[in-house]
Amino acid sequence: MSTERIRGRIGRGAAAVATVLVAQIVIAAAACVAQAHKKQAAVVIAVSPTGSDSAAGTLQAPFRTLPRAQQAVRLVNAGHNVDVLVEDGIYRLRSPLLFRAQDGGRNGYRVSWKAAPGAHPVLSGAVRISGWKLFDRSRKIYVADTPPGLDSREIWVNDKLAPAASMEIPRSKARFTTQGIVLLGNSYSELAKLPEQSRLQVVAGGFFTQRISPVEKISGNTLVMRQPAWQNNLWGYDTIEAPFHPELAHLYLENSLAFLKRPGQWYLDPVAGKLYLRPPDGVDVATMDVELPRLTVLLSIGDTLPLLTQDLEFRGIRFSHTTWLGPSGNQGYASQQSGSYLAGADPIYPRDPIQSCARGCPDFESRRNQWSQMPASVQVSAAQRITFDGDIFAHLGQYALGIGNDADATLSGAGLAAGDIVVRACVFTDDAGGAILAGGVQAPAHHPGDPRLIDRDLIVIDNRIHAVSEEYRDNSAILSTYGASPLILHNDISDVPYDAIDIGYGWGIQDPGGNSNYRNFMHGYRFPQNPVYETPTTYRNAVVAGNRIHDAKQVFHDGGAIYNLSASPGTLITDNYIFDNHGRIAIYLDEGSRYIVVRRNVVQDPKGEWLNINTVHHAWPLRISPDNTASDNWHDSAKTGGLWTNYQNDLILDDHLVTHGDWPDEALRVMKKAGIEPSAGPVAYEEAQPDANH
Length: 694
Known about the structure:
disordered N terminus; twelve-stranded parallel beta sheet; 694 residues
């Protein structure tokens, strides 16, 4: 039974307890249906680092590689449930594993890839680097050989993401032009002598974006930047040269051996096949594990409509070691929000964007429907009834898990169309990007021409997300954009630089009748690629309930620990516990938000803003973000933002300001119940043992 049908039975306005019950029923029902439909014992296929691909694939004679096991699954999954038992080890992939329609359950059966009892197997996209030799004694730098031509934006040392060699440039010492950056003063004259200048990149942090632009060359005191990356980073909002609140922004030059001065830093020369590293303090060079990724994608799950990959499970598997090289190429990373970025040269690019478009302009708005998305390490699209249960997504080079993203962000080239996807009791940690990116941002995502493309019924429940978005710090820990009935329930999210949970997208621009601010002041609808839609987007009936969020908003002031964009009928934010939020916004309803109910949440952050709504101050008579209600919430800060007025029909009702730490019993119950449920069992990172070395 689908989530939507169950919602209909219990009523749209049901409390969060009923919503959590819906998710549990869906998970249990899926398991029961699969078992009841086919009662015979599953066919068991075994894989082990000590096995052989010429063996029978049994427990007594296991295969050695995962692709060989995949071949065996295809012979039996049309008439049997299949369990692929993966023994302990690190299975090093030379190419992504592709799960198409022939690889899932067929004819009502299911296929489960699961850790063998007591095992903690790892699917890795990296090669292990060894043979370290002292390179520079005074700087404590070591060097090792790498496969020639192998490039990466990340390495991991003893299961910890290592920082690239870098130097900070004070913004007061930088003058920005359409061609690059002029460095002021004599202290930068030596940079022009650096070798391999095309390996350099500028990394800039803003108010809500983290931007990357590669260097073409250094001419005198000028960093001549690569195009179109540099152009795309100069126009729009929160740009490299004009970030909101520049006093909070930082500018770095990265990726040169000359900058390698601090413990843990590294530099890779892919042409020479050399990796230079100053080991972190306390790490033994003789025994350290250094992982150099060679893959962007580990798993690509999905087919091309009308085919779907379906009835496929992954249980107890760790996914590790990927890198996305996009920001190192000509496109760079012209970030717009949470992993969406500009790519390509624009035909109506302004002659001087620094003067005319550093705070937005109509021409920039012409690109709203053409943003690209960061590709995830594990990808699911054109698929249904896919489950990740008890898995580990650790040490990955971008967003860890992508579900129903745009077609150009998928290895298969088939985007969206992800339905009945469950992510339960998984751990996401030490990832360069965010944990989960669900939904697309382009027109087929919000107004698909084919209803089969609609992302629907995503359940993200009882997961532990800690220390993600370590490199792409503008990534949300969880982002669900356009889609029907996403349920984000009882997750524990901590130690993140930006938002913990973001839902919705589009700033109300794609909603029925459009956004009056966008029409009257930004003139975005004058372009044929930006129609005024008269029908709703696919975003509706989202529930964010029972989550425990702490130590979020470490870096970026914009956004909120829980954040919404655009209209979403039936959406509920309830029974969440937010604390230690660094004095920033806890719950934020951004531009175009409407029909959102914020109820029975606890916010413990006395210096922060517990609730904010963007009613667009200069356009407030136009009622950009109306019809939202916040009721029966507890908070120890009196600060709110935006216009909560009868005119907007944005109402704060039955509110509870708590002083002197005197939390009432109801609030304490919300605090206690928030986060991972006891029924999920221990949700923790487990280490693997032997190396399968494939």
